[in-house]
Known about the structure:
The protein folds into 4 domains: 8-143, Rossmann fold; 147-239, PAS domain (Beta-Lactamase), CATH 3.30.450.20; 249-429, Alpha-Beta Plaits, CATH 3.30.70.270; 440-704, TIM Barrel (Alpha-Beta Barrel). 41% of the residues lie in helices and 22% in strands. The protein contains 23 helices and 26 strands. An 8-stranded mixed beta barrel has the order 18-19-21-22-23-24-25-26, surrounded by 4 helices. A 5-stranded parallel sheet has the order 2-1-3-4-5, sandwiched between helices. Helix 10 runs antiparallel to helix 11, helix 11 packs across helix 12 (361-375) and helix 16 (503-523) runs parallel beside helix 17 (545-556).
Amino acid sequence: MRSSCEPLVLVVDDDAGQRCLTSAALQQGGFASLEAEDGERALSLFQRETPDLVLLDVIMPGLDGFAVCEALRRQPGGQDVPIIVVTSLDDLDSIERAYAAGATDFITKPIQGLVLSHRIRHVLRAKQAWQRLRESEARFRTLVQATGSVILVLDRQGWILEVNPAAEKLYPFQRGGRVEPDFMERLPPIDGWDDSEGSLCCESTIRALDGDEHILLWSISRFASAEGATAGWVVVGRDITQRRQADERARFLAHHDALTHLPNRTLLLEQLQKTIELARTRSQSLAVLFLGLDRFKRINDSLGHRVGDLLLQQVAVRLQGCLRSADYVCPVLSDPPLPQDLLARSGGDEFIILLTEPRQLDTAARVAQRILETLSKPFVIENHELFVTCSIGVARYPYDGANVDTLLKNADTALYHAKNEGRNHFRFYSSRMQAATIQNIEMEKLLRQALARQELVLHYQPQVNLNSGRIVGVEALLRWQHPVLGSVAPAEFIPLAEETGLIVPIGEWVIRTACAQARIWQEIGLPPLRMAVNLSPCQFADTQLTSMIAGILRETGLRSDFLELEITESLLMKDGIIDTLRALKRLDVRLAIDDFGTGYSNLGYLRRFPIDRLKIDQSFVQDIGRENDDQAIAAAIIAMAHSLRLSVIAESVETETQLAFLQALRCDEAQGFLFGRPHPSEQITTLLCSHPQLPGFGWLSTGGAAPRPQERIG
């Protein structure tokens, strides 16, 4: 019986005695054998048994060995089976006929058993090696053909030995052709290159067959001949054009306003710091113009945020036209030599203009006056003729401040006075404006009393799971009800609280009150809700923040995973913040990034921090359904968050269109006026008791504009 590991040899010979002797020799050598007395029998056995090798006699009646060899090669699988021709003919003509018929090797009679065994093993090893080589080449070709990278195999003279479809699609490469000198000039010199340190890498830009320029990252490796000498090079190019464009877009979004495409506050601060340092060394002056639109909220409230956004875009265009001919509007991704003038959007309806080297006081005055006159002309937006004015505060270096913060603060103070004095004009900062500080002190006193006199209250806005329709959480929003001043807008007292440090005790009160309310809802039998509370960046300066939150959780009895702390995206960039976040995470509270997409964090930063959730900024949600980039940004944020296993919540959802878009992208949760306005705890309690399962997403919509970010603490 044949062992499964014994190679099977088909012995074809019309001489029965010779067949017997050959089979015996094969068996002694560790081979199994089949015998065929003529060509027809050999072909039949070959088809049925598929031998590993054929030992074929040449001289036979009927079909001779040459004809049988040719017939075997035509059989399915016959191309790969070794055929050794056995002949007593040792003339060159017979040998050439055997090889021409397809023989792998030949052996002459009389056959010695030992020689035959070694010859067969040698041939079978050669067959296996050839099969492995062919399989390896097939794998290599499949890989080369399937990959999206450009792959070229070149000999030392630059002739193309191999080229894949990706390369042929990109550039006029052709197998057997020569690489054009123009292409080789875009690669580093490879003649004489020592590859002991690995591959040679470089980056170059080429104009492809489609006419577009592509950026490729090249890796060049040497391959050697059997003697070890350089035989050629393998050139692999990865098209990084889209990645580079995405990087540029990310850098642009990090330093530019998404709505107006002007530099944002981050870029402004960087540029202003550089300009001050340079002005100090050159004993030069500069001016900062802080501009705010007058009664812009009225337009937003009456005509909607879309009209407001379009107005801001047109205002940005007019402001650029108002600058001096030498003034500078920062272009995308440029790093120009300083000093340069700069127009930036600070946020909301505020813009900042940096004027370098104003040689005279009236230089800034002339620019400010030009702005007032230009903006006083009507704007036509969606068939609405709108009139908008602005107020401008001006502060000068070094007279009104020697650093970035002081200059911006004093320009803002001057803007505050310009608005209070009737709007639609500009004011230079002066020491007399210190009277405003007195007013701030009075407001600070009232705010300190408000906490003691229980004038501060929390309202709660529902957060809805977009899959189930259930209210799964609420966000705590701070309100101030003063007995004389009435309802004080959060935008008026929260910045003051942060400036004075009152935000720390107020923030502690907010967390304690919110946690206690969440626990009350649980005790009356309502389903557990996540309580979202905003943390101000100022609170992170408090070294007792973590222990304070841990104490409140113990005091109120609220399980820590029902508390979610929202932080601003810009906070991630501060030194030491990751240690505080990790300490908070050890409490098992949830951490979320608020207003995500407006700052300058990226995937690298997000991976470093123990974040559970991203909150899409309302600026990207409000423009859903319009032809702009905000939809793409919102989709990118959701996809990116899910790739990092973070959940996503969208804020300021006001329309069914926005909701449908977010649901299609599998956004996890949302909040906004479409689901409900912020309400006191009593109304939220009634709501939770009467709507354990929402019948639809539009059940609580009351219309109106979305709450501004200043409504949230921090």
